[in-house]
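Project standup — Tuesday

K.O.: blocked on the structure for the chain from last sprint. Re-posting the sequence here as requested.
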Amino acid sequence: MLSQNLQGLKQPSSSAEEFLRNNELADLIQKQVFATILKNKLDMAESEMKIWIAGCSTGQEVYSLAILLKETIESMDENVEMDFKIYATDLDYDSVKIAGAGVYPDTAFENVPSGILNKYFDKKQDFYVVKKSIREHIIFAPHNIAKDPGFHHLDFISCRNVLHYFQPTQQQRIISSFHHSLNEDGYLFLGQSGSIGDSKELFRAINNKWKIYIMQEVGGRKRSKDAGLHAIQEDSQEEKELQFLNEELVQAKERISSLQVKLEDIYIKYEDKYETLKIDSYHPILFVKGLLQIIKKQEFYKEEYAVAMLKEMNKLEWAIENFLTDEQ
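H.V.: unblocked you, prediction finished:
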């Protein structure tokens, strides 16, 4: 298994740095969690696994988990067709942007085996960029787990060492929300400083050291405002939101298409200088496209996401205009 050799992305200030460097935890995640979920998926003839990383910081843990999962899938029967999707969110907007770019200095990979490094990252001068084979599975977006609706039909949630930042009442609401988000027998990973508190009827511990739990069905439990963050809206309100969302989606797609055309024109005319612009425009395009995917599937939608998308589009347009001005 990958966990026997994989070390970790070295990021001194990030709690995620420990993940890949800790063979015990990586081995546990692969063998007892990912492998079990994948086996159950195959038994039910399902072909996609969904993960939510709540509190993704600058992305090291996101890509670590994505690599572990992809390696686990590849270690199974070669005829297995299994896709996966990872929703990676954080309250801090700047952290989400860094994570979405997937660009890290070479000093962050001192302990990563060369085989894994070359397989999942491209070398760009003194930096490494996450390859498309991993990045295409991940959607990054700003999100407040204490306020915003969560995702649905998930197989695994990682909220590692985050809950202690919240008040006890908020913690219980968040745990309740996670319970609603998970599929039957879905897993919750809270890390050594995490706890489900008084919600022991919702989850059963499978590892007390790392605070890994499996979801428990609770008879008669209904989704309501008291039960968590997934209150069911009235049909009329859903229809209004859907109409507004579709209008915004059409406009956003048109604007993205226009920006991509401009980038292609610049590449043709200024190929030798294109890398300068590409560094500035790389993560805004990915970030905006990620938000579009979320909105399209109506996983969740808030006005702040539209604002975040607008900021990234404006930034990209500004970078293009400045580049063209300098070249004239």
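K.O.: great, moving the ticket to review. The first helix runs from residue 17 to 21. The chain has two domains: 2-214, 235-327.
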